[in-house]
Amino acid sequence: MKKLIAYDLGTGGIKASLFSEDGASLSDVFIQYETYFPQEHFVEQRPMDWWDHVCAATQKLLLTSGSSASDIACVALSGHSLVAVPLDSMGRLLADQVPIWCDMRAKEEAGELFSQLDYDRWYLTTGNGDPAECYTITKLMWMKKHRPGLYSQIHKILGSKDFINYMLTGTMCTDPSYASGFGVFNLLKWDYEPEFMEAAGIRPELFPEIRPSDAIIGTVTPEAARMTGLAEGTPVACGAVDNTCMALGARGLKEGVAYTSLGSSSWIAVTSTKPIVDRDTKPFVFAHARKGYYTCAVSIFSAGNSFRWIRDNLCRDLGDGTDTYDAMNRMAENVPPGSNGVMFNPTLAGGSAQEPSPGLKGGFMGLSLSTTREDLVRASMEGIAMSLRCTLDILMTQTTITGEMLICGGGSKSAIWRQIFADIYNLPVLKTNIDQNAASLGAAALAANGCGLWDGYGRIPHIHRTEDLSMPDPNANALYETLLPVYRRWAGYLAELSGMMTKA
Question: Which InterPro entries match (predicted)?
Fold first, then answer.
C-alpha cells in the first residue's frame, strides 16, 4: 500500500505525518524551532531552520514508522501564512531571518500604501482583514525602504511552505490560498491584482507563479533526497496555507461547514461559495484549495498561548511529573460556570481586527479575597471561549453555520473546555479522531489528489469518527448570555485604558 507524507509547518514547529492512501493517520513526528524577536514589533524565523527540521522530521518519521522511502507516493505541505522569504535569481536565500505572520514592523508602510490606494476597496477585493502591516506586500515595502540592497536582489518572494517546496523540488511557485495572503490577490478573479502592486511600488515579477493547491509542481531532487531520506523523484504537490488545509481536513467541503481552531492563536472559519467580507468587522478570507470556495474566518491572537501563560505563571508548581494541563482541567471541573464572578480577557498578544483595538491588553476582573487559583484557571478557559464567541457573532451576521462546531487543535483534548465552548457558543461542539491533525489531513488530501490516488475530496468526512459531542447546557448558556454583554463592555474599556497606558 502506498503512503503519503503531510507536513504541517506551523508557527511553533514542524509536524511530519504519515498517512495511508485511504487517509488514515499512521504516525507523526513534531520538532520545535525558534522564533526571534530582534526588536519591538519584529517577529522572525529562520527558513533554514524550517528546512533542517523538515529533513530531520522526515528521517525520523520514516525510521520510527518502519516505512521505506519507496512507499511514499507523494508529499504536500500546509504552511503558516503571510511570510516573506526573499530569494535571488540563483535561488539563494537573501536573509537568514524573515518576518512571519505576526510581524508588525510595516505599520508606516501600510499607511503609505493607503495613501495611494483606497483601503476599503483593497480589503473588499483581497479579504485581507488582519492589520495591513501583517501582509506580505507591506513587508516587501519595508524591505525596499529599509534594506534596499537586499530588495534589489530579490528574484522571487515565497511563503513558508513555498520555500520548503523549492528546497524539495527547485520549483518557485505558490498556490491560490497562500497567494491570497500576499495582499495583492483578487479573490473573485482568482489571480494577482496588478494595480495593488503598482500602488505599493513593488515589481509584479517578484510574486511567484500560482498553481492549483493539488498540482504536482515537481519531484524530490537528488540533493533533497539525500537530506530528507525521501526517494529521488517522489512527487510534491503544491500544498496550501494552514487555514485552508485545516478547512479541507475539517470537512469544510460545502457552504456553512465551520470549525474552531484552538491553538496558540485561535480562529473560527467557515467554508463559503463567496468571500465573506465586511468593512466594519473585517473577517479575513483565504482562497480554498477547491476553486470556487473560500475559507472565511475571524480570530483572536491569544488562545493557547494565554492558557500557557496561566500554566507557566500560576501553575508552575504542578510540574512534578503530572501533566500540568490535566491538573488544570481538573481544577476547572471543580468550579461552577461563571468562575465565581471572575472574568478573563485573553488579549495577551494584542487585539485582532475583530476586537476593539489592536493595542488591547488582557486582564482579570472580579477578583476578591475569596478568589482561588481554580477560579482563575476556569476563568481563563471561559475568557478565551467568550472572546471567540464575540467573533462568532460577527461571522453569524454574514453567514449561516450548519450542523455542529468541530473543534480542532491542542485545546480540543480538554473535555471540560469543549463543554465550556458548547455552553458559550450555544452550539453542539464536536471532537473527532482527527483532532490536531486537520491541517495535516488537508495536506495529505492534496497530495493524494495530486498524484492520482484520490479523485476529489469526498472521502474526507468519512475519515472523521466522532469521539465526543458536547451539547450546550441550557442553564449554563443562560448564565453566559448574561455575562457576554459585560465581557463586551469590559473589552471596550480595556481597549480605551490600554491606549491611555501606551501614551503615558
Answer: ATPase_NBD, Carb_kinase_FGGY, Carb_kinase_FGGY_CS, FGGY_C, FGGY_Carb_Kinase, FGGY_N
